Amino acid sequence: MASTLSQWFRSLRVKLLQRYEHQPFVSCLAGLYGCQWKHYKRSQPEGCCCNKLEGASFAVLVAAFCLTLLFLYFWGQAKNDYNDFDWFNFGNLGFWFPWSVVLLAVAVVFFTYVTVLVLLAVCLLSEGQKLYLHWSHKIGILVSLTVSIIAMAVLSNLWSKEWRTLLLSFQVTAPFLHVGGVLLMTSLAWPVALHFFRMKSTVRRGLIMAVYLTVLLSLYLIPLGLYSPCIKEKGTLGPAPALIGHRGAPMLAPENTLMSFEKAVEAGCDGLETDVTISFDGVPFLMHDYTLQRTTNIHEVFPNRTNTPAARFTWNELESLNAGDWFLSHNPFGTAGSLNADDRQRAGNQSVCSLQAFLQLAAQTGKLVIFDLYRPPRDHPFRDTWIQRTLEVIQNESSIHSSQVLWLPSNLRALVQELDPELQQTSGSRLPLEELQSNHIVKLNLDYTSMSAELIREYTAVNITTNLYVISQPWLYSLAWCAGVHSVTTNAPQLLSTISSPLFIMSPDEYKLMWILTDLMSFVLILLIFFFHRWRERELAFCTGSRIKLEGGTYSKFKKELSDIWSVSSGNSAAERMPSLAAVTEH
């Protein structure tokens, strides 16, 4: 029994000291990475993994991987604002095209390409091979790097608020990104340890270990500075934020039309949001844009007035326009195809909606309303009385109760409050608490990028609720829920109304357990990998350059003792000293 166990341990030791090159696999890797399909030669594992040029190429490859990953993550998290991005381009270019999706596809392609090259390089390094990157890949990496830098620079200039969105996303994804980062660094321990112990240059070894350990320790300690409102004790989560339909339900019907608001009501919205402009003859109507180009067929009905402000049209002229065909032709959210035949026909026949019809719908369904009110241009008959005209519609031309109206316009707020004190005064700016209270503000309507659990608590303490706009992605809605937001304005009420609890929520104890276990398991695995390679390279330090082929794999550099055993082909002492090796060679 003892003899058998001893032979098993000696056989295991021999196998651990053998170097497998897996020639077909390595040839495939080298062919994909360096296009060396015909002239590939096995490289010697000693020394550095590459020359200076290839080392610089690998460094650029790693930089490209990091930047393309950042670009993809940045634009992927910006999905909440894709519609705004596409309409911004429509306003500048004059035609509709889903540029946001194209940009996302470009980011995915570049990241995938660079990631494949990184994986090939890591596999080659894990096999102890030298790196040689083909010139075509070097050009491809530079193109990926350049495009990512330019795209992020342009987006940062035009849409700087998306960086705040990125920071918000970390409050949700950081615990999971931490786990992913630790797993990645743990998997890199094998090639790092392999080449660390094979390198002869002390400087290079020190540099590799310094970089690796710095990144690893940073990942281990990142949770110490991590904050997420979704990490909270059980039982402390408040109610889900109420939903306010942004221009109705614009994914299900043309925005700011009666059909859109009816769809929002069906989706379970507690409130409706819109934009109000006053026609030239004094009829308040719903229109977000300054002109009618984007959401009507004005180019067909009034081709010479396409750039005319919407407020300079009479109500009769506005009623003659179609406000639904554009939704079916442009398909701004990619959801028009999901409508049934009846809804498609109804959407295509929508007209410009009046404020009176909008308020009547809200009154009948008991919904809150909030709207931006645009002051008419100069020389408009109602330029100086637009506030009073709007109040007339609320008080005299509809059956809505004033308490259902969240009054957002800041102009003449004192006069409005005097004329109708039951309106819920709402501020679109983050003002000092004293000023908010002096203006009798009961609700804040803020951009979602200003989300702060601490500020929300401060406002709540003085009976001021918070509404954030525009939130359409589940992760953002979950974050708002955890932060204590009271309501959100959304393009996707049909989606958010189905969320029964925040995504990614966990208790502090659950997160600490995940964090500690991840770091501990990673640390133990990395230690084992480094100790294994240290032991293996020290054992192989006495090896000769002999090479034997076993079981389809090529093994090199056996310990001198094993080489001597192999060379004695007829002696019994060889079989006695290494029976396991003799048994293997008989295959």
Automatic annotation (TrEMBL):
<keyword id="KW-0325">Glycoprotein</keyword>
<feature type="transmembrane region" description="Helical">
    <location>
        <begin position="513"/>
        <end position="532"/>
    </location>
</feature>
<comment type="similarity">
    <text>Belongs to the glycerophosphoryl diester phosphodiesterase family.</text>
</comment>
<feature type="domain" description="GP-PDE">
    <location>
        <begin position="241"/>
        <end position="500"/>
    </location>
</feature>
<dbReference type="GO" id="GO:0006629">
    <property type="term" value="P:lipid metabolic process"/>
</dbReference>
<keyword id="KW-0378">Hydrolase</keyword>
<feature type="transmembrane region" description="Helical">
    <location>
        <begin position="137"/>
        <end position="156"/>
    </location>
</feature>
<dbReference type="GO" id="GO:0016020">
    <property type="term" value="C:membrane"/>
</dbReference>
<dbReference type="InterPro" id="IPR017946">
    <property type="entry name" value="PLC-like_Pdiesterase_TIM-brl"/>
</dbReference>
<dbReference type="GO" id="GO:0008889">
    <property type="term" value="F:glycerophosphodiester phosphodiesterase activity"/>
</dbReference>
<feature type="transmembrane region" description="Helical">
    <location>
        <begin position="176"/>
        <end position="197"/>
    </location>
</feature>
<keyword id="KW-0812">Transmembrane</keyword>
<dbReference type="InterPro" id="IPR030395">
    <property type="entry name" value="GP_PDE_dom"/>
</dbReference>
<feature type="transmembrane region" description="Helical">
    <location>
        <begin position="96"/>
        <end position="125"/>
    </location>
</feature>
<protein>
    <submittedName>
        <fullName>Glycerophosphodiester phosphodiesterase domain-containing protein 5-like</fullName>
    </submittedName>
</protein>
<dbReference type="Pfam" id="PF03009">
    <property type="entry name" value="GDPD"/>
</dbReference>
<feature type="transmembrane region" description="Helical">
    <location>
        <begin position="209"/>
        <end position="227"/>
    </location>
</feature>
<keyword id="KW-1133">Transmembrane helix</keyword>
<feature type="transmembrane region" description="Helical">
    <location>
        <begin position="58"/>
        <end position="76"/>
    </location>
</feature>
<keyword id="KW-0472">Membrane</keyword>
